[in-house]
Amino acid sequence: MTQIDFFYREFGTDRFIHENAAIGKEIVRVVPKSKYAAADMFFSSREKRWKNLSEFQGPGEKNDSAIFFEYAERPACIPALDMRQRDKDAKYIEDYTAAEMELYLEYRAEEARSRFAESNALDGNKIPKNIFAYEISTDTDSLAVGIKAREFVPVEKPVERQTCDETEETPEIRYDIRNGKIFETIEKFDIPEEIASFALGKLLEVASLFTGKNITAQKGSSSEETLLMMDYITNIPLEPNLFPVVNDEYAAPLKFKIDRTNSRIFGDFCKKAGIKNHRMLRKSYIERPAALLTYMRVKSCGFRDVNIFNRVLSERNLYTLFDENCRRTTDQNLVFFCRKCIKARGETCTLNLLSKTTTGIYGAHTDFAFADGIAMFRAYFKKIPQFLRAEIYREGFTPTIHDALSEISYKCENENKKFTYTKKQRSLEDDIDGFSFRLPTDSSKLCDIGMKMHNCVASYTDSVLYGKCTIVYAEKKGEYRICIEICGTEAKQELAPRNGEPGDEEKNALKKWHERHGIKE
Fold it and tell me: Region Disordered: start and end of each range (predicted)?
């Protein structure tokens, strides 16, 4: 069964109105009053000529059986006019003869009219005004949705020439879900947002019929995004939740090809990916299709115990850990750590350690101590002493262990470099309210500040050496309290330990320091 929904352009606006009762109504072309039309004119299809709109006699006193739309004329193709080719001595307009002046003025008038027609061809949404309606067809038998535009081909100067091209074009786009194909004879940018949104709703209904599941999707922020979503839905398989999984970057190495009509595609994918298709996995997949990718990531980390997989899939902090740290096949830091830890302590202890790390006092897995820790563990593994490895396998990446790894990292990558400062830079050193504002003497000092304040200031060594910035630290009672980055006379960053905001005490000292040394915040 095919259902047709009709949208017609509301006269004088950029909107299209949904009204199925409009099917079969007379389409009346109107040219609004302008400097090229003395009054509002309409084209009489019976008399084949343009008439004053006030003379319209439709099949009803209120014209309820007619649809009016603004008819835009086609811009004329006017060749460029070079008067110098006619008279090489005529350098100025005052030199033209009467005949030449007449020719020139006619050209300017035609040019102005063409520009008027060109500027009037599109509505406020950049859609041709001569598209007066859209038809959306929903075929539940063929499982297809079509969007058809109805427009008249414009002509030049329709009112003066008493013509109006009768040719009607019906470009369309058809989404065939059954065959996974899209047929286009229309520019997608010629489809307004309200039409695209309505068509998306119809396509979702058809997709639900195809899959036997309730398919939902949000419209895009523009008609182009909504139509791209429709392209995506048209190629949806019988198992729609598997579609984004197969197309994920992490599953790309499998080179799994989707057979859209295969009702056993879930089992085939699990077999291809080496996934044990058990009840807990299927339950997790229904709630969260990305659980298949999580399973693959856990497996790549060296885990094999089915109980481990079940626990990861059921605990949010754990599956988030694997999903965010193994997002791509090139993300190997967590994989490297897990395999080493499993070899040293076993699967259960390794997972318990990860759970402890991700729910401990130092925050989630995105915390610097864990994210940086696993990266440094892999990069400098051969340089890490056995006693420190054993402590990592027991405790995880605590801030203390992170600092120890940072020191190893810095020693591996850098030799100690002395800093030299100008007299102006030296003047920044000061003592205010118990705070000692000082310049680091060398790169080792920067490393010490970075480790104890838990920030990345050690990476600023080259910037300080080449004068790109100045680092100032403030300490009180032997503790680093503030780390400041200065460019010129402006403070780019002023941070407390762990990149936090300075407290009130620190802010008061900073304010006085700014005023004394002319530093802008």
Answer: 495-521
Nearest-10 Cα torsion for 88, 92, 93, 99: -20
The DSSP string of 270-325 is HHHHT----HHHHHHHHH-TTHHHHHHHHHHTT---HHHHHHHHH-HHHHHHHHHH
Tell me: pLDDT of 85 over 60: no
CA distance 80 to 102: 16
Q: List the structure tokens of 285.
A: 């997949």
Strand order in the sheet with 490-495: 430-432, 435-438, 470-476, 479-487, 490-495
pTM: 0.53
Give the torsion through C-alpha atoms of 313, 314, 317, 322, to 10 deg: 0
Q: Are 175 and 146 in contact (CB under 8 A)?
A: yes
Q: How many CB atoms lie within 10 A of CB 144?
A: 21
| 213 contacts: CB under 8 Å, gap ≥ 6 | 240
Quote the distance between the C-alpha of residue 126 and its chain's center.
23
Query: What SS3 class is residue 178?
Result: coil
Q: Classify residue 8 by burial, with Cβ atoms within 10 Å: 0-12, 13-18, 19+.
A: buried
Give backbone dihedrals phi and psi of 100, rounded to 5 degrees, phi first: -65, -40
d(CA 35, CA 42): 16
Encode pLDDT of 462-496 as tens digits: 889 988 899 999 999 989 999 999 998 889 889 99
